[in-house]
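Q: Structure tokens for this one, please.
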Amino acid sequence: MKVNVRRLYANTYLLDTPDGKLMVDSGSQLYAPVFPQLLRDFRPDGLALTHAHVDHSGGAWIAAQLGVPVYAHPLERPALTGLVHDLPYPSGLPAVGRAVSRLHIKLPGTALTDVMAGMVLHGWEVVPLPGHTPGQVGLRREGVLVAGDAVIGSRDGAHLPRAAYNADHGQALDTLRRMADLDLQTVLPGHGRPLSTAELRARASRDDQGREQSAERCRGSRRTRPEPEDGLGARQGSILVREDHAR
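A: Here is the predicted structure, written as tokens:
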């Protein structure tokens, strides 16, 4: 098994096994001028999109035009085909996100083939990794997981995308825990360097500790809540629960 990466803003992985050649993600449309040559050099049997965000699917329309089968989860189809234009970035500016999405060339529906959890693409198992987007998937084989934006690899370890960039941050945390429990040797993220399972577990443990501390603060606040004064009205105790929106 050979695994190579090209950084086209997001990581594009070139997976070469006896079962075929699979490209995972197609980078940003900013790299469209160099993407056709990458396709001609690698000659993939298929392109699997982990999710529909434009920094991962920007070259998919080129692959489709050149006859490369394009695979994605059906929950990502509306964004990939332009039926919806919801982008979570820039954070807090949905109108800008929609405008950015509309600037990117979309795929015709006929160019997409749906994939579901448990299916096998050229020897790689499709693994559900929802949270960052509803239909995000990864690809797993022989202890290697291509994880999309379910995790980010930085110099100091594993991180999640900002909470504002996740469709469901709680689900993204659950996905991170599930990945940490898988029998893996290497995790290949959508951005940054490869990660070990130990780094995933360290990150998941940090979130578990944060949740326990938040729950304890919540319980403590309830125990110390003051009684209503003089029977004239209840003074409501406030409970502050901080969620760790790690980056």
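A few notes: The helical segments are 35-42, 54-57, 60-65, 77-80, 94-102, 169-181, 197-223. Confidence is low (pLDDT under 50) at residues 212-216, 224-247.
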